[in-house]
Amino acid sequence: MGRAPCCDKANVKKGPWSPEEDAKLKDFIEKYGTGGNWIALPQKAGLKRCGKSCRLRWLNYLRPNIKHGEFTEEEDRIICSLYATIGSRWSIIASQLQGRTDNDIKNYWNTKLKKKLLGSTPNLNKRNHSQQQLQYQQLHQQQLHFPPLQLPQLSRAFDQFNSLATSTLLQCPSYLRYEAKPSLEDGNMIMFGSEKSCTSSDNMASLESYLYNYGTGGTQNLNIVKEGGGYGMSWGDHQAPLEHNYEEIKQLVNCNYTLCNTPSNSATPTSSCIIQDDPVDGLKPQGKLMYQF
DNA sequence: AAGAACTTCAACCGCTTCGCT
DNA sequence: AAGCGAAGCGGTTGAAGTTCT
Q: Fewer beta carbons under 10 A from the terminal one: N or C of chain A?
């Protein structure tokens, strides 16, 4: 059995909106609001349109303070940052860019920004999503002019772990910028800092939205998972293959990470990462990285 | 000049989530 | 707790515009 249609398809107009229809919808919503019911709205407003279509037209085109046209460098940077972190969750990305709609950002990403970023890296389209996301993270780091985490003494697995640790901080709302400063001289510690406070009232809605989406626990598990003949690392939505055996990984990752906040930041991320045998099945050694707000 | 190829973006579709009963 | 309808969301489509040959 198919899904019940949301409206009477036969008596509903489809396709581009005419200026008259736009005016009707705009006038009606400005006078009466949406009434919390998009399905009933078109009939009340005298429109032969599906409620979903009206909602989309209003949200993406007619509502006040919509910004169209060229995206700024800053907007590009935010989009790249968030895409590298959370993927194609356009509504969350849009919530960080005033006046931009999720549809706009999605179109911009698919038609321009992706090509702009990948101009120097052909064949990315052929890769799967997690590979793409990893590469976007690397591109994003370069774009932010952060020095790449060059840790020549350590192996690729260590670098991958750095990347994942960094991306965890990236999951913070965009106003919680971070800075990664590898500091090998200091006992294999990696220092992170945030440069903005997350407590100002105008940011609280975004913070709440972030906590809603990522949980309030402030603790995430890093799993080293046996995959076929090798090992992989999984972290939230991230997965990365590792080219080392368990003992090598253990040796490489068994070091402490300290996340230090700058004096101006009221958030207090703290972290340590210690790989250890899983007491339950012994096959999934876990590291824990903790941070607190 | 013409039409093929490519690009853009508004709009649609259908699945998931939310909130009410 | 379950069921249902509406809202929200992301992937996809296709018409219109632009560029290329």
A: N
User: Burial of A52 by CB count in 10 Å (0-12 exposed, 13-18 middle, 19+ buried)?
Assistant: middle
Quick one: A169 and A270 in the same domain? yes
Q: Which residues touch strand B (CB under 7 A)?
A: A 3, 13-17, 49-50, 52-53, 56-57, 60-61, 68, 103-104, 106-108, 110-112, 115
Residue A154 domain-assigned?
A: no
Whole-number distance in Å between A35 CA and C2 C1': 27
Q: If DSSP codes are grouped into helix, strand and coil, which group holds residue A19?
A: helix
Q: For residue A169, report the phi and psi dihedrals to the nearest 5 degrees.
A: -65, -30
Q: Do residues A15 and A45 both lie within one domain?
A: yes
Q: Please check whether residue A116 lies inside any domain of the structure.
A: yes
- A252 CA to B15 C1' in angstroms comes to 43
Does any domain span residue A207?
no
Q: How many angstroms separate the CA of A211 from the C1' of C14?
A: 38
**A94 pLDDT tier (thresholds 50, 70, 90):** confident
pLDDT of residue A34: 82
Domain that holds residue A77: 72-145
Tokens 């009707």 belong to residue: A24
Question: Of A65, A72, A76, which is closest to residue A113 (Cα–Cα)?
Answer: A76
CB of A28 within 8 A of CB of A20? Answer: no
Domain total in chain A: 3
CATH of the domain at A92: 1.10.10
| Cβ pair A166, A100 in contact under 8 A | no
Burial tier of A114 (Cβ tally within 10 Å: 0-12, 13-18, 19+): middle
